[in-house]
Amino acid sequence: MTLLGEFSRLSAVFLPILLNFFLQGAHCELLVSPAGPPLLNAVAGSNVTLAVSFSGASDPAVTWLMSDLPVVTWTINSPAPPDIASNRRNVLRIEPNGSLTFINVPLDYSTNYSVEMTKAGLGKSFTNFTLKVFETIQNVTLSTQPDLAVEGSQRFTLQYRMQQGVVEQQMWFFNGIEINTNSRYSVENRSLVILRLNRSYTGRYTVSLTNPFSSETAHMNVTVLYGPDVPVLEAHPAQPFYASGASLSLSCQAEGLPQPTAEWAFGGLTLSDSRGGVLNLTNVQTSQGGVYTCTLLNELTKEKRQESMTLNIYEKPPGNPMCSVQSVNNADLQYHCRWSGGTPEAQLSFPALSNTSSGAGNFSLTITASDSLNGKTVTCMAEHPIQQNKCNVTASSPAQFLPAVRTTVDSDGKIVVTIRCVSEASPEAEVSWSRGSEAVAVGTTHHISSDTTQLTIRDYNISNFLLQTYTCVCRNPLGNQTREVQLRGPSVSDSSLFPNQDGTIITLTWEVPPTSVVTGFDIQMKGPDLLSRNRNGTRTRGTPNRFHTIQQKPGSARSTDIFNLDPEVTYRFRVIPKALMTEGEPSEVHRIGPGEGLSGSAVAGIAAGIPCSLLFLLLLGGFIYLCVYCYKNKSRQTRYPVSRAVEKTITTQTDSPPHNLLTAGLKSPPDYNRLQQTPSERSVALPSFVPPPPVRVATTV
Ligand SMILES: *[C@@H]1O[C@H](CO)[C@@H](O)[C@H](O)[C@H]1NC(C)=O
Ligand SMILES: *[C@@H]1O[C@H](CO)[C@@H](O)[C@H](O)[C@H]1NC(C)=O
Ligand SMILES: *[C@@H]1O[C@H](CO)[C@@H](O)[C@H](O)[C@H]1NC(C)=O
Ligand SMILES: *[C@@H]1O[C@H](CO)[C@@H](O)[C@H](O)[C@H]1NC(C)=O
Ligand SMILES: *[C@@H]1O[C@H](CO)[C@@H](O)[C@H](O)[C@H]1NC(C)=O
Ligand SMILES: *[C@@H]1O[C@H](CO)[C@@H](O)[C@H](O)[C@H]1NC(C)=O
Ligand SMILES: *[C@@H]1O[C@H](CO)[C@@H](O)[C@H](O)[C@H]1NC(C)=O
Ligand SMILES: *[C@@H]1O[C@H](CO)[C@@H](O)[C@H](O)[C@H]1NC(C)=O
Ligand SMILES: *[C@@H]1O[C@H](CO)[C@@H](O)[C@H](O)[C@H]1NC(C)=O
What we know:
This protein is 11% helix and 41% strand. Bound molecules: 2-acetamido-2-deoxy-beta-D-glucopyranose (NAG) (9 copies).
């Protein structure tokens, strides 16, 4: 059993070997093989032979297949001609030894060939060939698709064309460096494709084409057009803003190929005078401030880009800021600051009062009044890009003041008394008026001016003015001042008399107490009538013993001149203040003249006196005269106004109570004419006083 199994295993191994050896030894097999290289390159138009050799049989049947299609069939050494496909007869020949020859081989014979040989009883054998037919490469040119290389194109193709040739290998170069297919380049049939073109692909492209028989290269310079890129917009000189009237230029520049053209526009209008992207602006006005837009154009690619910039043109407000302070409900202070009109408007603030609020152009800040603000100078800061400015304002409480009283007569003949209470204050003080203990009732009698500083009282009856005390209170949010005014009846204070040198003219002056109600003055005289040259030189001379009115002066008068006095005669003068018909106390009486005429009894007394005493008196008189004479010489230079001490020597107390001179209507009316005197003559310095003779002074004592 095992022996049998061993044998069968051995026979399974050796039997095929033995059988094969037997068969080969007994029958020679037909075998075909290439006689040269199985791969042939040929130039088109040349003669080429695919050479085969065979063994193991004689005169086999041969079949050549071109791309698996039989094209030639023949039995070697057969007298019958080979069977050649009719359309290939002018090219294909079969050699007696079975090789295939191509006469003037055309390009389209490049393919795979195989030869098959068969012999009855001896089997069949075949072998393969590859024939490549080439043409020399000539006149290679490059072209692009699209024509213009523009940055951003998704696909840009470089393609070669040639007049003739069969290319076995194409190679592409960029600036001499070989290009391999990668993410940006792809080498396709007869072309190089660049994906997502950009400016860095500008350069020299070369294609190199080769086959076993020739090689050709072609170049092309590719320029990738690009831009406009993001432009640079600049103003020269570079400033955050420009004052109106300034000159500047705007420039707009951007990279690009070709260089883009630039154009400026403002307010929707293209500014034609910009050249090369430069816009010159001279003497700019605030209306030229705003957004300027530059448009750039690549004239080849028609690519456009716009960019804008803002030009600030400022102008400071005219003048200077104005500060003021006002009262709000007499409790709060409203500080104002105003500086309006600029571009942009100035920013105003009162840093000392508030560091958080501010305003443009016109700013007010209301604060509760407090003592700390009284007299405090508050500065308004006015900030404008072109100029910083400021103004000051100081609020202060009403200052000390004196009320002023003025009296006039209105067209109805009423006495009009005006009381003014003006107290310097900021904000301006508001004045409230009261009469007695009550507020003044505005009506026909009382009137308060619109600015409240003036109270006007109208009445016929002077008594009504004197009954009440008027009070004015000047008030602003920072404080108040109160004054009382007790009106007085007509009165005169401090009257004086100044004669000229030769005693023909005197000037009377007087004052009125501040609260006195006076509408006019009567100037009264006691003594002979004044000389008058108006009446054909006839002189009238009287010796009245009573004061009579010679002039009437308005309430505003404080002096008067009296002319045509006779230096030889003694005159007495006084001033009567009046409120309409009501007369006040007369002024003191002023006397001028050689002295009091001596009465008859006095003369008699003197005549009856002891001559000794008369002699003594004469001596004494001479002594006094000498003293006075010396004094007079010393004071020659003294000019008007004379000192009060000198003045007093000519005043004497009135020796009679004042009479109501209005009843002295019997007297001739005073001569108001200034006679030959003119105002300019009156302005001549008044003469110094000439004292009366001492003897007479002594007798009056
Ligand atoms: C190719 O063969 C033909 C026919 O035999 C002959 O006329 C021709 O001259 C040959 N050409 C070349 C280049 O040898
Ligand atoms: C067959 O014949 C051709 C032409 O006659 C010759 O060139 C070739 O060398 C021959 N081949 C062999 C194997 O003899
Ligand atoms: C020729 O044969 C080779 C391999 O034998 C093959 O790769 C090639 O495609 C064939 N050519 C043609 C044209 O049939
Ligand atoms: C091919 O190129 C050569 C030289 O470059 C030129 O002389 C010839 O005329 C060209 N042929 C044609 C058909 O253009
Ligand atoms: C291409 O560019 C090279 C230099 O880069 C220059 O020498 C050559 O003349 C250019 N060729 C053409 C056709 O412009
Ligand atoms: C702008 O001014 C510059 C120099 O100030 C001058 O060179 C340029 O020509 C001017 N441009 C225009 C468009 O007027
Ligand atoms: C504003 O003023 C107050 C008091 O004067 C001060 O405490 C505060 O810090 C100031 N604020 C600023 C922003 O200056
Ligand atoms: C405003 O007041 C400040 C100080 O109180 C002073 O320095 C400045 O000169 C004043 N300015 C004006 C315009 O009066
Ligand atoms: C003036 O007023 C006083 C007091 O009111 C009065 O007594 C007197 O009669 C009045 N005089 C005239 C003329 O009205």
